Fold this protein.
Amino acid sequence: LRFSCRSGGGLVQPGGSLTLSCAASGSGFRFHMMGWDRQAPGKQREMVAFITNMGDKNYQDSVKGRFRISTDGPKNTIYLQMNSLKPEDTAVYFCRTYMPNVWGKGTQVTVSS
């Protein structure tokens, strides 16, 4: 299973916005559920958001109302629009699939003034 991240992370000021995108491909891959996890320094990896092929979505409580996950299903691509970013959102963000559980390489998002 391969991932390509067309829009990566970066440095943004508090209150700013970033959009991550990730396309999954591979022999026999079918979009069941995909999402984003993140891992901050010294902390465990945690779920940020996921979306199913039926369009059902789930978010970590700390990002509800600020982050939005969407998909372009036919292209097995997901997007994470992150608004009103906070310093505590600083982490490496990993695109992932469920069933199978596979993670991409990760992209750094830093929120700092």
Q: What stands out?
A: The first strand starts at residue 2 and ends at 7. The chain has a mean pLDDT of 92. The CA atoms of residues 33 and 52 lie 4 Å apart.
